[in-house]
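User: My instructor asked us to take a sequence, write out its structure as tokens, and then describe one feature of it. I'm not sure where to start. Here is the sequence I was given:
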Amino acid sequence: MKLKALALIGLLSVVSACGGTAGGASGDKTVTLYTVDGLEDWYTARFAEFKTQTGITVQAVTAGSGEVASRVEKEKANTQADVLVTLPPFIQRVAAQGLIDAPSVLMNNYLSFIHNPGASPKTWDDLLDPKLKGKIQYSTPGEAGDGTAVLLELQHVFGEQGALDYLGKLEANNVGPSSSTGKLQPKTAKGEILVANGDVQMNLAEIDKSGGFEVFFPADAQGRKSTLALPYYAGLVKNAPHADNARKLLDFLFSAEVQAKAVDAYGLPAKADTPVSGPKADKIKAALQGVEIWQPEWDKVLAKLDADLAAYKKAVGR
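Assistant: Let's start with the prediction itself. The structure tokens for your sequence are:
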């Protein structure tokens, strides 16, 4: 995905732009956001509104959910980011280290899968069909939030050992590792691969822009479809170089007015009492029709994540 009015900048340029004290240099009207990909177009509109209201420019560094979290961890002795937006369990991992203040759900979202029109899988068993050899790719658990969610969803469906057994079989069709879920969308649209994982917000937004694939939720042997809640979280980074500006940005993003605009990006507001309606809300509802949504206990997920990832790597031979 590409940023339009919002500049996508590398870490070196962020370092040069964001020096100063914890409160931000006097007169410095910037704030640096490290964010998972998927919300680029929504950010463009929101950050233009934020600059109009405050005069503050948001500089965004966009990468996979695990990568942006890792950058915050690596930079803890020389903090560069002011605000972090990423997916669980990475946001919980950063919080457990005391590197982010009380992160909160910014936008609700859910794990999904996509397929090219050249394939029509409906069940988990369908994904094991030899006809899909070299045509399936999912983002890597432990590196991408959506990829970690794939592992959790399979544990939910098959149990912990059953999930590992399934992923071992799926490896025959898997192209290989991917640290970014977003990069799998154009590959699926072009037919380079036929099936990939994703999330409802990102997938529906991309379909709206360019199409080329469809969202689906694999069913189990009894025909049941399920998915897990996978929200975007946001929080203030400890020792943020522009903390005052960062707080203003977070207040803006969590305001009722901006929360109501989550649906513009095919997300759902974090606040349950924020009403949403219109064609995009209807598409979200249609996509999730008949799908059981379950809520992981993210602290428990984080506590056993290292062991789960080690077992995963062994199961797929990496």
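For the description part of your assignment, you could build on this observation: The CA atoms of residues 38 and 202 lie 5 Å apart. Try explaining in your own words what that tells you about the chain.
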